[in-house]
Amino acid sequence: TQTEEGGDEFSNYKYEDSYSQIPILLGAYYLFATTGAFKPFIGAALGVFMQNYSYTWTYSYDIGGQTYSDTEEGDASSTGFGVVPGVGFYYLIGSMMLVAAVEYAYIFSELPTEEEEEYTPPLSKVSRIAQDDTEDTTDKASYISVNLGIAFPL
User: Which residues pair with 47 in a beta bridge?
Assistant: First the structure.
């Protein structure tokens, strides 16, 4: 969740948005056979990523001593397939292991967005110039993660 606030002597705004993701993955890792305490591994996971995005935009302004306020809220979600390759290592220290890994979660679906009506200005309807320009506004929620930890065998 993030919040942004601002304004001037006549108006104020506040913007809050939130993004969450739930991955459901199935993976496998291969541990390389080594004779020392250093044990490297590689692996991959496949699965589904459920994403949710919500926002609240509040805008207030003064006109002639009267204060007006407007609030817009939105919520969108998507579910997509993803793959997560990773590399890392275990380092054995007595009866515990240090663990380090780097993973890249690549999600094939786009970030969730609300569907809005597309506005076409009258001039571009006549000239068709603006309709030829296409802008790629698709964003993905892929990310790199670095994991560090300590493991204790049972």
Answer: 25, 82
For 122, phi then psi, to 5°, come to: -55, -35
DSSP 50: E
Whether pTM > 0.90 for this model: the answer is no
Would you state the structure tokens that stand for residue 10, as one six-digit string?
Answer: 């006549």
Distance in angstroms (rounded) separating the CA atoms of residues 1 and 16? 7
Question: b/e map of 75-109 (b: 16 or more CB within 10 Å)?
Answer: eeebebebbbebebbbeeeeeebebebebebebeb
How far is 113 from 42, CA to CA, in rounded Å?
A: 34
Across the beta sheet with 143-151, the strand order is 2-7, 11-31, 38-63, 66-93, 96-107, 143-151
Q: Read off the pLDDT of residues 25-60 as tens digits, 9 standing for 90 and up.
A: 999 999 999 989 999 999 999 999 998 888 888 888
Residues 6+ apart with CB under 8 A from 132: none
CA distance 60 to 71: 9
